[in-house]
Amino acid sequence: MTHKLTTEQRNERSAQLDQLSTIEIITLMNEEDQQVPLAVREALPQIERAIEVIIEKLANGGRLFYIGAGTSGRLGVLDAAECPPTFGTNKELVTAIIAGGSQAIFEAVEDAEDNEEVGRSEVRKQLTNRDVLFGIAASGKTPYVLGAVQEAKQLGILTIGLACNVNTPLGGLVDYPIEVSVGPEVVTGSTRLKAATAQKLILNMISTATMIRLGKVYKNLMVNVQATNDKLRHRVIDIVMEATPTNEEEARRSCDLANGDARAAILMLQFQVDYPTVMQALQKSGGHFGRARSQLMVQGE
């Protein structure tokens, strides 16, 4: 009998799943899901090491590329897509490559994950040795992802791998492995469940902690949020009010003067300086809010 990956094994607790009532099914799923954050907690040291090297690369002009197939690839796409609106990054800073291309975001392109050479080709086309390649594969053995990582290593590109099994080919190949085992799925082999939940939690940590450390957050406020609709324009005003001792009218006026940039509006109010002065400080700091604030504080002394 061949050894099965943990993510492919039968879950004895759900062996009679098709005989359960609706409430029994969702209760079981909820109980199984509670194991996920505990499993992720065990991998926090690995996650920390990965974040630290990503920060270093991005601070020096590099980019972060997620790569995966199926559900893993879609989660990479989701995390990358959320960075520009949440943290005000350009769309090239964090991006995602998915086996099968954009079609695979909406429908399964199952054979795409088996093509190792296509994974290699994507790396050759898109990455440089200033970047980071972050492979995502629940099994830890997806050929498309392994091919990409192998190519990246040959090109001197830093590699990180996220798998939902331990001692995987991906983990053994990358520079910085993250391996978390959440156990067998409620529906055997359906890694869009607990494995995907673990991946989502970890990717949340990766992008959020990285952006915080890069100065995209002030206290716990999304000061780099992009005001692209009416809801977000109101949110920017609320953020300015939270960060400064000001009323709504003054916050709105400052936001207008700052062209909707919450960072600039906050700094203008905190230090009573004009928009060009604030933007100069932000430019000198590389867009790092905390460092720009420190510069203005020193200038005001």
From TrEMBL:
GO process annotations (BP): amino sugar catabolic process; N-acetylmuramic acid catabolic process; peptidoglycan turnover
Annotated family: Belongs to the GCKR-like family. MurNAc-6-P etherase subfamily.
SUPFAM superfamilies, per the entry: SIS domain
Gene source species: Paenibacillus pectinilyticus
Record field: catalytic activity: N-acetyl-D-muramate 6-phosphate + H2O = N-acetyl-D-glucosamine 6-phosphate + (R)-lactate
Entry annotation: catalytic residues: 82, 113
PROSITE patterns in UniProt: GCKR, SIS
Entry EC number(s): 4.2.1.126
Domain of life of the organism encoding this protein: Bacteria
Pathways involved: Amino-sugar metabolism; N-acetylmuramate degradation
Key words of the record: Carbohydrate metabolism, Lyase
EC class: lyase
InterPro entries: Etherase_MurQ (IPR005488), Glucokinase_regulatory_CS (IPR005486), MURQ/GCKR (IPR040190), SIS_dom (IPR001347), SIS_dom_sf (IPR046348)
Domain SIS: 54-216
Membrane-spanning intervals of the chain: none
Subunit structure: Homodimer.
Job description of the protein: Specifically catalyzes the cleavage of the D-lactyl ether substituent of MurNAc 6-phosphate, producing GlcNAc 6-phosphate and D-lactate.
Coiled coil segments of this chain: none
Protein name, per record: N-acetylmuramic acid 6-phosphate etherase
GO molecular function, one term: carbohydrate derivative binding
Pfam families according to UniProt: GKRP_SIS_N (PF22645)
Miscellaneous comment in the UniProt entry for this protein: A lyase-type mechanism (elimination/hydration) is suggested for the cleavage of the lactyl ether bond of MurNAc 6-phosphate, with the formation of an alpha,beta-unsaturated aldehyde intermediate with (E)-stereochemistry, followed by the syn addition of water to give product.
Lineage: Bacteria, Bacillati, Bacillota, Bacilli, Bacillales
UniProt entry tagged with the keyword Hydrolase: no
Gene3D superfamilies hit by this protein: 1.10.8.1080, Glucose-6-phosphate isomerase like protein, domain 1 (3.40.50.10490)
Keyword Zinc: no
